[in-house]
Amino acid sequence: MRTSHTAIRKRIAEEKSRLTDEQLFASPQFAAYLTDIAEGTTGRYRRKSSVRTYWDALPHADIAHTDNRVITVNAGNYLTRSFPTRSLKADSLLGIVGHECGHILFSDFTMLATYHQALSGGRFYPQEPEDLSAKQAKSLREIGEFLEEKDEAVINALSSIAHSLVNMMEDVYIEGRMCDAFPGSLKTGILLNNLRFAEEMDSVTEEIDHQHHEVFIVANLLIQYAKTGDINNLGGYKGPYLDTVYECIPYVDDAAYDDDARVRFDAANKMLLLLWPYMESYIRQVREDIKNHTNKAETEMGEQLAGGAPLPGGLGKPVSGKKGKHDPGSDEDDRNQLQQALDYEDGRMELEKTDEIGEDGDGGTSRTSDYAGAGYVSQAADDMERILTQLAEDAAYASYEQELSEELQAESDKIRYGNAHRGVHVNVNRMAYVDPSYMEAYRKVAPPLLLISKRLQKQISQILKDYKEGGKLDNLPMGKRINVRNAVRNDGRLFYKLKLPNDRTDIAVAILNDESGSMSSSDRITYARSASIILHDFCKGLDIPVAIYGHTEFDDVELYAYAEFDSIDNKDQYRLMDMSARCGNRDGAALRYVAERLMTRPEAIKLLIIISDGQPAGENYYGTEAEADLRGIKKEYSSKGIQLFAAAIGSDKPNIQRIYRDGFLDITNLEKLPVNLGKLIIQKIKNQYAA
Description:
This protein is an alpha/beta fold. Helices cover 53% and strands 10% of the residues. The strands form three sheets. Strands 4-10-9-8-11-12-13 form a seven-stranded mixed β-sheet, with helices on both faces. It has a three-stranded mixed β-sheet with strand order 1-3-2. Residues 322-331, 334-354 and 361-379 have low confidence and may be disordered.
């Protein structure tokens, strides 16, 4: 199968135009990019982290969470999808990763677990709240009575609301630390998400109209304030909900930026006392759930209460380094800076107390369906474009490789395998998409093997260079031209000849690896794989066409096309890592297929190398009849110009020698397998180019 680079570029452009947000942001490539960001962020503090992505566009789907090592991001979350351009969506996902990195770096998981365990057990931590207002003292007495009675509904409700309050302040704390430590794209993403979060939240009036639990209404207003320093009150609501929020704000301002987590726990306890009068309906629902074994309260909390991802679990202390009390003006500066970048407005007014809101005009709402964003050039735009191109290339190459695989199978279906394989199906396997795990495995084992390849290449590179560029061959014992300068010689080597430049490669190589179960013994498959890696790099480095196959037999003959003559995605070396010891070996069918593939090549020398540890052992294919089949195949293709050699690496060498005769190679030392096969190819090249 041949194709032009122009056709591939066209296919890549087509694939790029078809890629959806889900294909881009939930791809392994984008997850790898986010992992690089996370590793660079947490690695500064000697913490390890990685990122996994998936896509869930349901309304109340999780946004992200971490277990203190792995960050799992829902790339289809509602907040990210709300942005109009891919650049802003990429920034949003960076902000989410930055937020979770903040938990990994700056959250004290041990103290968080202690706080929640204490409250779930019916007691306050780090101590019972002190210095309370009359309202708070009254709430503490009432709560105390329920705690003494071990009222499960009250304890569960208190624990849930307290968790939300601590989460709220912990989010503000870790985001402040992250924005100070990483003022680039992570800060941009964090602030961008907070602004959009506030825009997406309901106003006070809308919360009331939706008949949310009262405690959730107050908690949501606090979350709005904690994230943006503002409250959505476009309806002009005045009442006890706002009054309670104003009572809680000093606790948020003081605790959310303190390095001591216990300050946030104490603040959450005191705010919990202020929210206690609004918890009646929620406690009632919790009590019904306990009685009826339902979870309606939990569902309603997920639907009605904002606040992002849950706090991570695990053990560990925050990294060292004091941030200190937060400058009250820095949040405002950050928001103004981001608003200026987004160009949403000219500036932000200072908050002032007003008595009424007046509006002129007819009112109503309208929809702008062609809104294309604010014109902000994302800091992640270049990276995203690179990943988008990579995804398009991967998709285009995968499509090409799939077509190549289908062509290989079609060629197999045309081959007449002979009476020995009548009724046997040959299945050609070609990995269209190469998983990154194969690439990582290759990078671990390849370096010392590639050094061997480079040494082998040096032995033949000058001959190939002279062949391709042309040159003068001197000191020949016979020829048509005499070099008079050689007349002083007494060895008779008087002749020379000129060779014209030649772009052709006059040798093509195919390697067939036995992948029978016995190859697992004594690391045979490991050495076969190593030899294949070396020979593949050797041939590619010298522009020698090479194909590498493996074969086994389950119910069918299974051929594995690791490296192909017409492959263009430059990933065949990684496919070699899939080579494994598997089941039986029906050598004749596999050998005939690879020989037919080699026959399609125009090169003068066609070299087929078999790496095997034993005689045929397939279903109804063994013994003298199988050996006769192999001898017949060798004789047939030898007459067609294929030079066939069998590298015997197991204890069954006498049988292999009996089958392949003059094509038998005794590889006693497996460690010398790659070098010996490389030298075989070198010798064939020298013989050809010296002729």
